[in-house]
Amino acid sequence: MYQKIVVALDASKASRGALHEALNVAQLTQARLHAVYIVHPWCMSRYAGYFDPDQLREVLREDGRLALDAARQAMAARGVPGDTEIEETESAADDIAHCLARCVQRQGAGLVVMGTQGRHGIERWVLGSVAEAFVRRADLPVLLVRSLDAANGMSSGR
User: pLDDT, tens digit, for every residue of 58-75?
Assistant: First the structure.
């Protein structure tokens, strides 16, 4: 069974659902949980207006600290052993999916749990999908957890 589970977090509802499912699996398998938040400060073009990249990086890291604090509290409340980390993409050419893959490999995980927004059509094409990009490259099991909003849209026939 799984000994190490990596859960990828961000500030979304889907991410919170992924944490909940990762905790469930970790409890059932007595696995260790590693929560990771990936900062991608290169996501904004310098041509989109003036911004301070160091200031943006710090804001993104603070969002990560908040998400990981919540994950640590949830792990403690459920009695699941684990740890957390903030990772950062290496360059503008790097992306979140590749950064996550490096983290998963370094951790020696047997399972990855991550949220997905359930976008489709033009919205998915324009915004992309970190989950899809990761799954296409993954060589280990990946549990995708849809956000409640996306799941509700699916059940209503959208």
Answer: 989 999 999 999 999 999
CA-based R_g, the chain, Å: 16
Q: Hey, is 40 helix, strand or coil? A: coil
Where are the chain's structural domains? 4-155
Cβ-contact 56, 41 below 8 angstroms: yes
Residue 67: other Cβ atoms inside 10 A: 21
Structure tokens given for 14 = 């889907």
Q: Which two tokens stand for residue 38?
A: 């990936």
pTM as predicted: 0.85
Q: Which CATH number describes the domain made up of 4-155? A: 3.40.50.620
CA-closest candidate to residue 113, choices 91, 90, 80: 80
Q: How far is it, in rounded angstroms, from Cα 148 to Cα 76?
A: 24
Of the pLDDT bands very low, low, confident and very high (cuts 50, 70, 90), residue 39 is very high
**CA dist., res. 18 & res. 115, Å (int):** 5
